[in-house]
Design brief:
The protein has six helices and 14 strands. By secondary structure, the chain is α+β, with helices and mostly antiparallel strands. The strands form three sheets. A six-stranded antiparallel sheet has the order 3-14-4-9-10-11, with helices on one face. Strands 5, 6, 7, 8, 12 and 13 form a six-stranded antiparallel sheet that branches. A two-stranded parallel ribbon has the order 1-2. The radius of gyration is 34 Å and the shape is elongated. The termini are far apart.
Amino acid sequence: MSYFANPDNLKARAAAAQAAAIAELRKDAPCRTAACEQARASTGIMGWITGAAFSGANSSSPTGIFGLLFYTALAIFVVFLTLMFVHFTMYPIFSFSPNDAGFIPVPTASDQQLDFKNGPATYDLSANFTGLPACSYTLGADVYLSGNFMTSEVPRVILYRSNAPVTTASTVDGLVSTYPDTNFIVWLDPLKNDLYMSVITTGDGGSTRTIETTDPIENVPVRKTFRLSVVFTPQFVELYINGKLEKSMAIVGQLTTIPEESYIYPTIRPILSNVLVGNVSMWPRILTAREIRANEGAAKKTDVFFFKTVSPH
């Protein structure tokens, strides 16, 4: 049998031709064999690269394995950069916090604290928040008004800060004296469903306590849960209803000093059957408008939460 007719010799020649073609592909050298040209034409540049990598891997070459890993990592990095560009310039992709609008969640530490999540708050219990600053924070709460008419001059206080619960009824003019240890009060008109926020400031060297009050948010929802968000800073306050900015106010004076041990209280005893508050949240920073809009959805799931206690009339 001749050399060329020997099957073993034919296999050896075919293997040698294939190895030479692969070597030319990996060197980016001009093709000198038909096998090289055929492989390059059929696979294209990506097939050239991956084929070279896999061939190296199949031949136990560390260069081939590292090449595959390198191009895979490069592709992932390019995709990541593209998504980040889209996220910050066009449309939110990533969700870095529970209130973000992105659809790809990114695990991060949340600074939101939540209390009264199992039922409406009672008048004598404060929200269990830690690290509450004197100001420059954001509050959120689900609020339900029963719609029961009250013939009273008592402002329906929704949220306030104090070192002890306030149980004494007050008139609007008496808020400063009735709440001596607070620097803010969120309240409803005694007769109308208009919502206000008042801050307590000082003048004349700190000897005079003055109340500064926002314009009213008229006709807040009745017998339907709404989400109230409060941004409280030394310079201004903002009030949001269901994620929409309704009122803001620049603070003229200097906020009054409050006790170091003071807490957030929802509602007071004289109005407990008329106003219910739950799912009270605190962030020890100023939330952006976008974060507040994202947080607006919390109220939509809590009508039953309040209806267990108060049935609509």
